[in-house]
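Appendix B, record 7
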Amino acid sequence: MALPGPHRALARLRVVLIDASITTVLFDLDGTLLDHDQAARQGALEFARELGIRGRDDQIVRTWFRIEKRWFTRFERSEITHLAQRIGRCREFTGRDLTDDEALEVYELYLRHYRAAWRAFGDAAPALDRALGSGRAVGIFTNGEPKMQGAKLADTGLAREDMPLLTAVGLGAAKPQPQSYERAAQAMGAQPEQCVLIGDSQRNDVSGARNAGMRAVHLNRAGHGEITSLDQLEFTPR
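Structure tokens (predicted):
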């Protein structure tokens, strides 16, 4: 059977059907709906230039991502707060003995450039609208904090009415901690087994979700997951 509309070009690709047993669809944000990596690359380069940090572009970007991953993983493990990981990242990246307030001021410089580069993936808005149009509850489930993640949705045109934003800070636990999935399901008025989480992180969005009783769909735009595009998702009506 031919696939309708935007699916036609994906006819040879696997289509993942979200069936009627799923009442709640949760989407990850960074790397799934929004191109975080590209925005972070651009933000890091502009930020480094403003601070007078020298080096090849590829070296600066690799250093920023390495530091970001280490500090953010500590937050995900509940070793430090979300604010503390921002402070730690900026101290390490600049190599300066910054006070907390100074480090946060430096982070605001990065955030200005990072925010200017926010872009939604082209398949993001249609996927949200298809999920909502199927009669399911739909939410955004992210390890970020409410202010920044809410701004991402608003700035990129992805915000929708009746689509809650569930953040690690608000839930009091980050993916892949089991309680984060349980609390996300509870916030959506569902049981974990009634939820599907769609995201790009094998650890946070797939393994962690499945271990907590949710279903999961792994998006990898390079071809190493279950789907390479959100256009491959189909939702049966409820």
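Remarks on this record: Residues 1-11 have pLDDT under 50 and may be disordered. Strands lie at 16-18, 24-27, 137-142, 165-167, 195-199, 215-218, 233-235.
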